[in-house]
Amino acid sequence: METLFKKHRSLISSVSTDIIREAMGAIKWEKQLVGIRGSRGVGKTTLMRQYIKLHYGIQAGEALYCLMDSLYFTSHSLLDLAERFHLMGGKYLFLDEVHKYPTWSKEVKEIFDLYPDMKVTFSGSSLLQILNADADLSRRALSYNLAGLSFREYLKFYHGLDVPVYKLDELLAHPDPICTSICSICHPQPLFEAYLRAGYYPFYDGDEDDYYDRIENVVNYIIDYEMTAFCGVDPSNVRKLKAMLLFLCDNVPYEVNIAKLAAYLELNKATVLSYLSGMKKAELLHLLYSSNVSVTKMQKPDKIYIHNPNILYALGSRENIGTVRECFFVNQLSKNHTVEYGKTGGAFVVDGRITVEVGGKDKTFDQIADLPDSYVFADEMEFPVGKKLPLWLAGLLY
Question: 368-397: per-residue pLDDT in tens?
């Protein structure tokens, strides 16, 4: 235990609290069991350590922070730790990266049942099946999904600019005053272009090459470790999975031909569909369907997008600004809205009712002119022109 207490002090004291993401205020930390899921690199660890530092200080006492891949857990169980911590008066147990501890779900359930006065907060991969784990945690855990930075969060995180969260209907109904408000404190277009290149993950330090190397490391970790552990990916197919991701980076938006993709990878179609589904859950891809209502488990998507523009810039060998724009829109809207592929007109259908085309400043309404509730989100604009809105507005939704 002394080893864990020393590590706690070292890790908590070293975290900066200069910038706090608003997600901290949205999480009900006082619940008995809280789970925070998210892709590697989006800031789960930092958020947890910041909360501990702000509320319990740097010394372990009532609260204890544990990295679940610590050597301590090679000779001690999580359940033993909880028992000893409880006997010492511990009340708040924070478990980071629980997916690295094989029997985490069963032992967390037992801790929940044995120590009702102890609060447990755990973080894990976006692939973590909290609701379908070995132990039934669905009725016990309050689960949150942490995304990377929105454009709005990027403005605060890197430029100290406070911009409120807007609802989609509010953006569509009143874009003029919103744009006027934003443009009174900054010129959003150059900041938006910088965000597209290096803004989604909260670890950019001004060195773009280093940032892209770190994104590549994140992607490699997800495929090498998380997808083999949680998605049934055969380790011998890891190289093919990476080849598929690189292929998609250079060919998105990809109108899906599963037979062609399977032949390219020398895999059967069922395996390719399974891997695509896993890459979506791992937040490497977005899979779009023409109707989300009728999607079946093994149905091929109608269109594939890389999860966020920063992955495109980090892994793609050629730059296509049209692809980057659409990738951004799908990424930002998918956080709290359903996005479908608009086969019958318009690039996307949002929440089953709003038709959206995405493009540059010269994008027209030709394809969606006769559709109700239709809009164009266009790049290189600071103010709206009728129902043609600046693309960066889509980044103010969370």
Answer: 878 889 999 999 999 999 999 999 999 999
